[in-house]
């Protein structure tokens, strides 16, 4: 009877360890620069000729510098924005040209830490509305990451281990209940 009890305790402990370690491992390593948050664009939507602020969303090591670019497929496009340390985030401001066509534009942020470590690209979507109204409906999804957390080495194995451990604990407990009731 002691062997079964030990197996249940060990299985439960392993499951608890995996469940608490999983989110930390999936976050990309912890600390700033290891995460993959959406970048922050304010205001969004913006009217042609309006000023915007773009922030790293906590993705870059602090302090860092970098560049924000906009994929517009039109001439003239939206000029790149140089970013740098602002309080607790990395960011910068710029102006949307008055003659830019309304629509959704992919925003790409790349930063370099103070020790020369490149980080990014990180993505977002800027919506340019016609005039001051919010009359333009965004098209397409925001590019907020490349799904890297799904393809990291061990990511699938960690999930499978959690499921297998949970199944094993369930099986042992179920077996124990069945034997104690007979």
From TrEMBL:
Residues annotated as signal peptide: 1-26
Name the record gives this protein: LPXTG cell wall anchor domain-containing protein
Species, as recorded: Actinospica durhamensis
Keywords for the protein's UniProt record, in alphabetical order: Signal
